[in-house]
Design brief:
The structure is a single chain. This protein is mostly helical and 426 residues long. A hairpin with a 2-residue loop joins strand 2 and strand 3. Helix 5 crosses helix 6 and helix 5 packs across helix 7. It is globular. The two termini are 19 Å apart. The relative contact order is 0.12.
Length: 426
């Protein structure tokens, strides 16, 4: 890994991409500390303590603490992720969107545009909800966060948070296009890493000596397990027959199709955490009105760390793993491409039998991968219930950090390989 990073800085083009990525992430973290207008900055610390429990704690982790600071980047990239989930689900069930998705770059650009529009609408709606939620936290903290609260200030703060989300979305797309790695995932990665100092301090100040000794070994074992599973592959051999193209004959060859255990990477975990944060957030917002006690009950029932939340998150992770795997790898299209270019899997007839074979292998690979992701997400809750220790990071955060790091390193190695003739000769 170190040699890969050092090699990246020796090539000017890759070095510029890496530096551009760091610059965008630095601007993102800077915006996480700039409070929205009309917010009393002196009251933020008390509000952060009041917002540090329940679902807001999870959302605050994904935003790197920006939500509790009511910063302009407080919503982070969550609205964009939610919009992406909605559009991908609609693409699978709405014929017009499915047809649009198969029109190549033009269709994908149109779907991306729809995603952006939906992101703006969701960000504005969430902004208004969070303004009233933080306004309600003033009672718990005993401070005034938004002085002279009125409709104009609600609109101003909501517009500021929405504009911040649009800027974050644009920065994420810039990283994907001009930098290294997936910009959206890297922003969540940077937000989670920004919480490491407080997590280390929480671990070091823990009164449980057994927990202090065992925690590094647990983290190392979990990280090693994630790396082992996410790098696991099933290589499907593919044989290409000799073909006559024009006046020349192409030589046949043998290669393979790499099917990883978790082809969806960390996307199902991010999707599941985002979806599970919606009901308790709405419940906590409605529950501030004493007339609607069911809102408070819903927020408590699905609060992060509870068994109900963990079970729901595990089910969603498994479902989203299968769903997103079907999105990124279509066995029917793969079989048609193989048949088109004269390729076949030894022992399997081209066409539909190949598609059925790939689908069967992929389903068997995805099932243990989905169970593994769900287990890691539930592991901290299991350990807390057994030991009573306080974990600064959940399994969701660890999966995202390790998965994004692995994916970024793969892309960096691919960039190096494509620019290194020596790599091809070896």
């Amino acid at each position: 890994m170190i040699s890969t990073i050092l090699g990246a800085f020796r090539i000017r083009e890759i070095r510029n991409k890496v530096l551009f990525t760091f610059a965008m992430l630095g601007l993102y973290r800077l915006g996480s500390y700039i409070p929205a207008p009309s917010v009393n900055t002196h009251a933020l610390q008390s509000i952060q303590q009041a917002a540090g429990t329940g679902v807001l704690s999870l959302l605050n982790t994904f935003s790197g603490g920006a939500l509790a600071r009511v910063a302009i980047f407080g919503l982070g990239i969550t609205p964009y992720i939610t919009a992406s989930i909605v559009l991908q689900v609609l693409t699978a069930v709405v014929p017009s969107l499915e047809k649009l998705s198969k029109e190549g770059e033009v269709g994908q650009a149109r779907i991306t545009q729809y995603t952006r529009y939906l992101t703006v609408a969701l960000a504005f709606a969430q902004s208004i909800g969070y303004v009233f939620l933080f306004k309600s936290l003033e009672t718990q903290s005993g401070v005034t966060l938004i002085p002279n609260f009125n409709v104009g200030k609600v609109f101003l703060i909501a517009i500021s948070l929405t504009a911040g989300t649009i800027l974050v979305m644009w920065m994420g797309e810039l990283i994907t296009q001009r930098g290294i790695g997936n910009g959206i995932s890297l922003m969540i990665f940077a937000s989670i890493l920004s919480r490491i100092p407080s997590g280390v301090q929480s671990w070091w100040n823990s009164p449980d000596q057994s927990f202090k000794v065992m925690m590094p070994f647990i983290v190392f074992a979990v990280v090693a397990g994630i790396v082992f599973v996410q790098t696991g592959q099933r290589r499907i051999p593919v044989q290409y027959a000799k073909r006559v193209i024009g006046t020349r004959m192409t030589q046949g060859g043998q290669t393979y199709i790499p099917l990883t255990v978790i082809m969806a990477n960390v996307i199902p975990v991010i999707f599941a955490a985002t979806v599970m944060s919606v009901p308790p957030t709405i419940g906590q917002l409605i529950g501030q009105n004493k007339i609607h006690n069911w809102g408070t009950s819903l927020a408590t029932f699905l609060s992060p760390g509870s068994w109900h939340y963990v079970v729901g998150e595990c089910i969603l992770i498994i479902l989203f793993t299968y769903f997103y795997t079907a999105v990124v790898f279509n066995p029917i299209d793969q079989a048609e491409n193989l048949k088109k270019y004269g390729g076949f899997i030894p022992g399997i007839r081209p066409g539909r039998p190949t598609a059925e074979f790939l689908d069967r292998v992929l389903a068997r690979l995805t099932f243990p991968g989905a169970l593994f992701l769900a287990f890691i997400a539930a592991l901290p809750t299991i350990l807390i219930s057994q030991t009573g220790a306080n974990f600064a990071f959940g399994g969701t955060s660890i999966i995202i950090v390790v998965g994004v790091a692995l994916d970024t390193m793969r892309q960096l190695e691919a960039q190096l390989m494509s620019r290194s003739y020596e790599g091809f000769l070896r």
